[in-house]
Amino acid sequence: MLKILLLLFITLPLLELYVLIEVGSGLGGLTTIALCLLTAALGGFLIRLQGIMTLIDARKRMASGELPADQGVHGLLLALAGLLLFTPGFITDSLGFLLLIPMLRRVLIRRIFSFHPTTNRRGNASTIIEAEVIPDKRIT
To answer: Domain-by-domain residue ranges, the chain?
Structure first.
């Protein structure tokens, strides 16, 4: 996992730099910078809007007695989207905008939790074995 992160931290900035140079040579430097700033501003607005919607949905679930676990994961993915959108570059912006699609976030959440060790393939809780703790009377 550490090797993958190291590779990601090395290759992603180089890819971003390459794409920025290519776009800048086609559109011009100032236009490319303006486009980066525009995607960050638009992304910030959309993240704020979707964050508020997620918070409202979480409050509704809590009011009805449900645990808003899905909304917590949606919030984490929105935070990741924000990080990607405020990082300069078109690759990270594209990934950030993809995370702003609620349907894609739901698919990612299902995939993440389908491999969780406490759930089975359908996402249902695995078998729970109840036990009783009997104190040891030998302790003095």
So the answer is: 2-114
